[in-house]
Design a protein that fits this description.
Layout: E1 5-16, E2 19-30, E3 34-38, H1 45-52, E4 57-64, E5 67-68, H2 74-79, E6 82-85, H3 97-104, H4 114-124, H5 126-130, H6 141-153, E7 159-163, H7 171-188, E8 191-195, H8 199-205, E9 208-213, E10 216-222, H9 223-228, H10 230-237
Parallel strand pairs: 3-8, 3-9, 6-7, 7-8
Antiparallel strand pairs: 1-2, 1-4, 4-5, 9-10
Helix pairs in contact: 3-6
Length: 239
């Protein structure tokens, strides 16, 4: 594995039933960095995150901190320090905000630190603190996304996988969430793999990006270089 890479994916395939969706995807993610995966609907972005988490049938290699993820149970991947914020947010709508956060820490052994970490989430997302006893299903879309991110962070992950965190949210809420994601990366050194339909937002946040087309990596590079690429700007940024 190349030095400095927290995650190294090589020749990764993923299938749903008899249909292969990822066709030998390879990429790396440096420790402490934010990497974005961009592409049109159906390109394989969400499946890539699910394959890393071993939520779909996969072959190939996905090495995280020297540990092979392919072939492990999803819970084992979580225990290694990989947290997943899925599309659709995936909050437990019948439980309170506080109960959702406590569930996020279920694999942790340092139970005595969980309460302090919950308060840290409320400091980072004050709206959640105001609604700590409120049923998650009654939160706004933006608040549910904040809760989903916070719940994943309760794992104290080394790698945070984010699937379309801006989807369906007002621009002001999206700006707030992306500002907080930057702070989490900078302050807590949580590495991130971001799948995002809004290419401009993703490239502004990420250090490096991969463009996917029909289950394959079509192009990769540093974010600022891709933003300056005329073909990328025309196809993905609309300018």
């Amino acid at each position: 594995m190349p030095s400095g890479n927290l995650l190294d994916v090589q020749s990764l395939t993923a299938t749903y039933g008899a249909t292969e969706v990822l066709h030998g995807v390879s990429f790396g993610l440096e420790a402490g960095h934010i990497t974005a995966i961009l592409g049109a609907n159906g390109a394989g972005k969400t499946t890539t995150l699910r394959a890393i988490c071993q939520m779909v049938r996969t072959s190939g290699s996905a090495v995280f901190e020297g540990q092979q993820l392919v072939g492990r149970a999803t819970e084992e991947v979580v225990r290694l320090g990989v947290a997943h914020v899925p599309d659709g947010r995936g909050t437990f709508t019948a439980l309170s905000v506080d109960e959702n956060l406590r569930l996020g820490a279920y694999v942790r052994r340092d139970k005595h630190n969980v309460g302090a970490d919950i308060e840290k989430m409320y400091a980072r997302f004050p709206r959640l603190g105001e609604r700590r006893h409120q049923q998650a299903g009654t939160l706004s879309g933006g608040e549910q996304q904040m809760l989903a991110i916070s719940r994943a962070l309760m794992l104290r992950p080394k790698l945070l996988l984010l699937d379309e965190p801006s989807f369906g949210l007002a621009p002001k809420i999206v700006a707030e969430i992306f500002r907080i994601l930057r702070a989490i990366n900078t302050d807590d050194r949580v590495s991130m793999l971001l799948v995002e339909q809004n290419a401009k937002l993703a490239l502004e946040l990420a250090d490096h990006a991969y463009l996917m087309e029909t289950g394959r990596v079509a192009l990769s590079g540093r974010s600022r270089e891709l933003m300056a690429d005329e073909a990328v700007r025309r196809a993905y940024l609309g300018v």
